[in-house]
């Protein structure tokens, strides 16, 4: 199914008057604070978040997976689904492929299809957390850290193959996330596991094209429950630094223990010029893969405040690769992704409202009450009209979720693909 832009424009007309009144109201409020609303809208309009190829099917847990109809059964259909989201939101202009779940069969065909929706290929993701049917070595006891050299070698070669696939699609980065670790004390020699991982990452880095980046993702626990080799940002940073200039740390919001100060981690990595990628989701307990902004929207705002500060003040840090990494258990994934994109743009817009000069002055005056007021005033501003306007100006939907439902997208997908299709890789 391909959404006809004219239908979006028609549906926009029904709510445009109401939208313009709300936009006018916030534009006036911002004018009193000397903030240019159009400048914020411009930034929102060009902000693009990659959708991972594994996010288009029903999510699940180890206890079960509850399918819904019309899931994309091929990479082509996954690109079609991202096309739907991008047409509605103008914010999903990239796809992040998972290998081997989504190896293209027809490279030119896939590239053409993606281009027809204005979708580019962002970071490619390797998978050494599960065994493939034709593999000689098992990852049961680790991949890049494996005590067995043949196992490490297989994992290194897989990552190099992922880079080669990405090269054919125009990707410019690879994300490495390792499930390696131990379930029981004494199972691994910590130092050997870390050294093996470092050696393996350095070998992958040797195969990285000159215009590519490597992102190293960390996670404190799961699937291993005693220790994880790359458990935190410090370990990921240390490994990235041991590889070279084009290796970076990747922050995934769900990959922290409860109450970790993620905004401070973001600030530290930006200061060191070593924040490469960013994965959005939300959580209450651990790596819950919940919809962005659904549990801790204020934290998301505080993180964005550091990201905006970093984007403006840290030229030593490259442009970030943004991606949604969530699982939306029990929801229509397309609706969940639309909600996530909305939450991301809202937090970004709120962070753009923070008066950095006034904040600096208050910090220098050690006026902590004013510091808090400045942040909370931005957070408590209803920026949704700015977000809606950024879409309207791009001929996308003022209200993507309502438009998605009005156009009966899921019903049409079920008609096309059937009730029992299952997304590849899940
Ligand atoms: Mn992630």
CATH class placement: Alpha Beta
Kindly report how far apart the N and C termini lie. 22 Å
- The computed structural class is alpha/beta
Helix coverage percent: 40-55%
Low-confidence stretches: none
Small molecules (ligands, ions, cofactors) in the structure: manganese (II) ion
CATH superfamily: Divalent-metal-dependent TIM barrel enzymes
Sheet with the most strands? 6 strands, parallel
Total beta strands: 13
Task: Return the average pLDDT rounded to an integer.
Answer: 96
Shape: globular
Order of helices and strands: HHEEEHEHEEHEEHEEHEHEHEHHHHHH
| Shape-level CATH architecture | Alpha-Beta Barrel
Provide the gyration radius in Å: 22 Å
Strand content bin: 5-15%
Would you kindly provide a written description of the structure presented here, covering whatever features stand out?
It is built from 15 helices and 13 strands. With 426 residues, the protein is α/β, with parallel strands linked by helices. It has one domain (46-348): TIM Barrel. The strands form 4 sheets. Strands 6-7-9-11-12-13 form a 6-stranded parallel beta sheet. The chain has a 3-stranded parallel beta sheet with strand order 1-4-5, with helices on one face. α1 (5-32) crosses α13 (384-392). The chain is globular and about 65 Å long. The two termini are 22 Å apart. The relative contact order is 0.16. Manganese (II) ion (MN) is lined by residues 217, 252, 279, 325.
């Amino acid at each position: 199914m391909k959404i006809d832009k004219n239908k979006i424009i028609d549906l926009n007309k029904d709510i445009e008057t109401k939208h313009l009144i709300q936009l006018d109201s916030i534009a006036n409020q911002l004018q009193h604070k000397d903030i240019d609303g159009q400048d914020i809208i411009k930034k929102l309009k060009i902000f693009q978040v990659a959708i991972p190829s594994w996010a288009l099917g029903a999510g699940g847990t180890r206890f079960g997976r509850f399918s819904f109809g019309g899931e994309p059964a091929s990479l082509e259909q996954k690109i079609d689904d991202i096309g739907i989201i991008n047409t509605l939101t103008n914010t999903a202009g990239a796809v992040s492929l998972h290998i081997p779940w989504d190896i293209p069969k027809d490279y030119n065909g896939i590239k053409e299809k993606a281009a027809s929706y204005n979708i580019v290929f962002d970071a490619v993701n390797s998978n050494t957390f599960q065994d493939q049917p034709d593999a000689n070595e098992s990852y049961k006891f680790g991949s890049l850290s494996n005590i067995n050299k043949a196992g490490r070698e297989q994992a290194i070669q897989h990552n190099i193959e992922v880079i080669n696939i990405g090269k054919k699609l125009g990707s410019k980065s690879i994300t490495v996330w390792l499930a390696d670790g131990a379930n029981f004390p004494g199972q691994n020699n910590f130092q050997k596991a870390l050294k093996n991982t470092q050696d393996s990452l350095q070998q992958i880095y040797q195969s990285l094209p000159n215009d590519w980046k490597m992102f190293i993702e960390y996670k404190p626990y799961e699937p291993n429950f005693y220790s994880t080799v790359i458990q935190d940002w410090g370990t990921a940073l240390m490994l990235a630094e041991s590889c070279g200039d084009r290796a970076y740390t990747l922050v995934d919001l769900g990959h922290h223990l409860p109450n970790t100060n993620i905004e401070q981690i973001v600030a530290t990595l930006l200061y060191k010029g070593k924040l490469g990628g960013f994965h959005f989701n939300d959580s209450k307990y651990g790596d819950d893969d919940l919809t962005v902004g659904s549990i801790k929207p204020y934290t998301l705002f505080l993180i964005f405040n550091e990201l905006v500060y970093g984007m403006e003040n840290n030229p030593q840090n490259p442009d970030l690769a943004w991606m949604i990494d969530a699982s939306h258990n029990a929801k229509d994934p397309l609706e969940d992704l639309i909600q996530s994109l909305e939450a991301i743009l809202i937090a970004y817009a709120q962070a753009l409202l923070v008066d950095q000069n006034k904040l600096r002055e208050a910090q220098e005056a050690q006026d902590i009450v004013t510091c808090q007021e400045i942040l909370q005033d931005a957070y408590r501003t209803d920026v949704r009209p700015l977000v809606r306007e950024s879409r309207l100006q791009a001929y996308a939907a003022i209200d993507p979720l309502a438009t998605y439902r009005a156009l009966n997208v899921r019903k049409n997908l079920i008609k096309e693909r059937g009730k029992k299709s299952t997304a590849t890789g899940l």
